[in-house]
């Protein structure tokens, strides 16, 4: 029986090669896209799920609330850590960590030579609870006492092999590792984590080292009440997840009670939140470690929706073409039923056809998925590779997906085809019964659904592209071209050396101007402060003022307009500042000149800070965020004036002047900072990177649009071929009666145009609602223009007409004698 099913199916495929090809391509596109999307979604949702009792592990994070805003911080102050460890009941384990900023590491090798590894990341201080909380496999040593004493270090296997390449893991125990000036002894080796994790640490220094090391003790203030920083974090395991609400309330209450009397108002105290470990990978408010990647659940769900849409389009094609070709199967079904075939056997035959079609599509999808992964390499997380397709879980997903698609695409056509009455079909009446009428309505409905999805994607793609173009080309209030940014060494930041380097930069012929400061005008690393303005009539407090640090050349390098007052000068101190127009307005000044000479109280702890000038507003972060009130001033802190902002002369045609400038800067750098790597970036490239997420979204939508239009047009082509074949005698009669080619083409295209117009009416309000919701994420945004919808509708109409044109024109040109000769 099965052999007969296969022979019949393969014979049908060969006889109807075009329809088979359309079905296979449509389904393969949907399956390939679904496979790639499943890899992304499965990858992101698997982070840190391998730890024992991961549902009971939380990170304690901090929220700072001010009127109108809330600031989130992944860190926690030392005093709150003490409250968690000593006062909270229901905490099974608490592990405190502190991240060290890129220490230089040196080790003593077996041949008495010293190996040096510069700026190592992912080095932390951790107490002995860390390895009880998280799951690691020990290769040497044990979790029992590896971090119980000062100056111990546990290494991850890959890092250990980098430090001691010729030693076994057991031989590494007791070896010395120097972190800057801190001498540690290796007490354990743990295996690299093969699963997906945001805990990317590979050097674990015992936390008790802080008590014996003055330099660390100055940085890690164990009992501090403020100074919350992401460097210091706390992870806990609860006895049971249900107590999290009670413990959160208990911690916040206990912390407020322990605040010293000299602290700020208890109403302004920070609040603490227990963040589930599973949420850490998805919550950008708190982030992960070392600027690690966080995923967006909304984006993942949108990807799943796209996969579902593309699969739906492929299934619609299959249903449409199969039901449209019901006449081809009618006599076969009638004969089979007359010979004794049951309806179940007929359904099995048609489901076999569907399964083979789906299997062919699955093979094509399996082959093309690596190509899609390569095309979306910039969008797909770095950990996803084509080799992951061979994982058992992925293969199981593909098998289940193929079965689901086969059922979705094939069950309804199998039901319809197997229900034909043998007497009617053998009399040639299968086309006129009620079932066929229902099939026609179904095909039209499904075709409209296809065009709705395709037009929705087109409209969304046009709007996203329009918003990205707006973001990258709008006037941000400053110069962004031909500006080079160089950071002086963080650990070797000395004002004297910086001054020498700046003087060398100024002598270079390609350099127009140089400024020393910190962040560029637009960056995603904001510093904020608060201040009060008082006059005889009122007191105005501004809680969140953005800070920028720069010298007297800062606004000149970036061409920031000075509206009133004077610029900063070399003799100015932290007590003299420039403010932007937004802050001047908030302080009650209608004219920028009125703010010049006035003073702010409490800014950065200063009794009085004089306003010497007012700048025009400029964008400080991406246009997702509104322009904030801002001050610009020169700081005496070397870490706030160690970034060089260099305005270059316009680039020559071959770019040689910029190349020679960068080469000269590198030479000067090596003379002044011989032990530090030279690194630079162009400001306009940094701005473009800020909108990487939107650009990836645009690329994804473009592909989804192209694939949805491709699948829809394939289905349209198949239906057009079928329709013209069914109506060829009608066309012949019309031509004999005098119909022109144009009239015949118009007749055949009328139904297509009506279906596209109906889909346009349905898709437009859906797209408008979705796009308005998406664009609300931008404080500064483009408009949802009417022409986006018209362009999309006209574009879909033209694509549809061009797709069907070859078949309709061919049918209109055929000699009526050929189509009527059998009558």
UniProtKB/TrEMBL annotation:
It comes from Mucilaginibacter corticis. This is FtsX-like permease family protein. It comes from the Bacteria. Pfam families: FtsX, MacB_PCD. The keyword Amino-acid biosynthesis does not apply. GO terms for molecular function: transmembrane transporter activity. Residues 305-421, 706-816 form the ABC3 transporter permease C-terminal domain. The keyword Membrane applies. It is found in: Cell membrane. GO terms for cellular component: plasma membrane. InterPro entries: ABC3_permease_C, MacB_PCD, Macrolide_Exporter_MacB. Keywords: Cell membrane, Membrane, Transmembrane, Transmembrane helix. Residues 20-252, 507-665 form the MacB-like periplasmic core domain. It is a multi-pass membrane protein. The chain crosses the membrane at residues 21-41, 303-325, 346-369, 389-412, 451-472, 700-723, 744-766, 786-813.
């Amino acid at each position: 029986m099965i052999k007969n099913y296969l022979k019949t199916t393969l014979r049908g495929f060969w006889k109807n090669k075009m329809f088979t090809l359309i079905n296979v391509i449509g389904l393969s596109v949907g399956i390939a896209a679904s496979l790639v999307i499943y890899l992304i979604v499965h990858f992101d949702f698997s982070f840190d799920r391998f730890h024992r009792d991961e549902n009971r592990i939380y990170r304690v994070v901090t929220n700072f609330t001010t009127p109108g805003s809330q600031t989130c911080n992944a860190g926690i102050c030392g005093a709150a850590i003490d409250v968690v460890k000593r006062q909270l009941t229901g905490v099974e384990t608490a592990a405190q960590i502190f991240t060290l900023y890129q220490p230089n590491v040196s080790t003593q090798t077996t041949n008495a030579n010293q190996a040096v590894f510069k700026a190592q990341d992912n080095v932390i201080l951790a107490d002995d609870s860390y390895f009880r909380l998280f799951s690691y496999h020990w290769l040497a040593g044990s979790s029992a006492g590896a971090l119980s004493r000062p100056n111990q270090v546990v290494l991850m296997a890959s890092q250990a092999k980098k430090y001691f390449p010729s030693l076994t893991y057991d031989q590494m125990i007791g070896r010395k590792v120097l972190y800057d000036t801190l001498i540690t002894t290796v007490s354990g080796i743990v295996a690299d984590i093969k699963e997906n994790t945001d805990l990317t640490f590979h050097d674990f220094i015992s936390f008790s080292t802080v008590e014996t090391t003055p330099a660390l003790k100055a940085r890690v203030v164990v009992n501090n009440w403020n100074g919350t920083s992401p460097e210091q974090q706390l992870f806990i395991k609860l006895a049971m997840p249900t107590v999290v609400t009670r413990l959160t309330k208990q911690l916040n209450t206990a912390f407020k009670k322990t605040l010293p009397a000299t602290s700020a108002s208890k109403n302004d105290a920070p609040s603490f939140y227990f963040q589930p470990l599973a949420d850490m990978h998805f919550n950008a408010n708190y982030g992960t470690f070392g600027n690690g990647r966080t995923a967006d659940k909304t984006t993942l769900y949108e990807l799943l929706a796209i996969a579902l849409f593309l699969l739906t389009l492929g299934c619609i094609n299959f249903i449409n073409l199969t039901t449209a070709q019901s006449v081809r199967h009618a006599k076969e079904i009638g004969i089979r039923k007359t010979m004794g075939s049951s309806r179940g056997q007929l359904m099995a035959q048609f489901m076999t056809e569907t399964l083979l079609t789906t299997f062919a599509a699955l093979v094509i999808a399996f082959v093309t998925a690596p190509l899609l992964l390569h095309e979306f390499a910039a969008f797909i997380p770095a950990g996803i590779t084509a080799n992951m397709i061979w994982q058992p879980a992925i293969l199981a997903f593909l098998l289940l997906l193929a079965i689901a698609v086969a059922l979705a695409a094939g069950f309804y056509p199998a039901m319809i085809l197997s229900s034909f009455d043998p007497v009617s079909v053998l009399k040639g009446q299968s086309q006129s019964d009620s079932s066929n009428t229902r099939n026609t309505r179904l095909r039209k409905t499904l075709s409209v659904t296809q065009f709705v999805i395709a037009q929705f994607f087109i409209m969304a793609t046009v709007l996203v592209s329009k918003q990205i173009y707006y973001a990258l080309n709008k006037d941000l209030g400053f110069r962004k071209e031909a500006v080079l940014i160089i950071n002086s060494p963080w650990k070797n930041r000395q004002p004297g050396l910086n001054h020498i380097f700046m003087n060398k930069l100024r002598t270079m012929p390609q350099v127009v101007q140089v400024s020393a400061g910190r962040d560029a005008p637009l960056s995603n690393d904001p510093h904020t402060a608060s201040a009060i303005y008082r006059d005889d009539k009122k007191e105005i407090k501004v809680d969140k003022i953005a800070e920028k640090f720069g010298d007297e050349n800062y606004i000149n390098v970036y061409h920031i307009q000075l509206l009133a007052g004077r610029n900063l000068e070399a003799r100015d101190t932290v007590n003299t500042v420039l403010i932007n127009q937004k802050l001047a307005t908030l302080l009650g000044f209608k004219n920028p000149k009125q703010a010049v000479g006035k003073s702010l109280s409490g800014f950065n702890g200063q009794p009085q800070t004089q306003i010497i000038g007012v700048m025009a507003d400029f964008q400080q972060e991406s246009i997702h965020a509104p322009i904030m009130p801002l001050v610009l001033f020169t700081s005496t802190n070397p870490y706030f004036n160690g970034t060089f902002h260099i305005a270059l002369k316009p680039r020559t045609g071959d770019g040689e002047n910029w190349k020679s400038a960068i080469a000269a800067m590198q030479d000067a750098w090596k003379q002044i900072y011989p032990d530090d790597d030279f690194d630079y970036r162009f400001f306009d490239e940094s701005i473009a990177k800020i909108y990487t997420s939107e650009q990836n979204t645009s690329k994804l939508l473009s592909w989804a649009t192209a694939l949805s239009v491709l699948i829809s047009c394939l289905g349209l082509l198949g239906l057009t071929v079928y329709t013209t074949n069914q109506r060829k005698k009608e066309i012949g009669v019309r031509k004999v009666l005098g119909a022109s080619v144009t009239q015949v083409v118009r007749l055949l295209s009328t139904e297509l145009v009506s279906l596209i117009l109906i889909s346009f009416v349905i898709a437009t309000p859906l797209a408008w609602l979705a796009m308005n919701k998406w664009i609300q994420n931008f404080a500064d945004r483009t408009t949802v223009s009417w022409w986006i919808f018209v362009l999309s509708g006209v574009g879909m109409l033209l694509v549809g007409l061009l797709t069907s044109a070859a078949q309709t024109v061919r049918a209109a040109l055929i000699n009526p004698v050929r189509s009527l000769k059998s009558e």
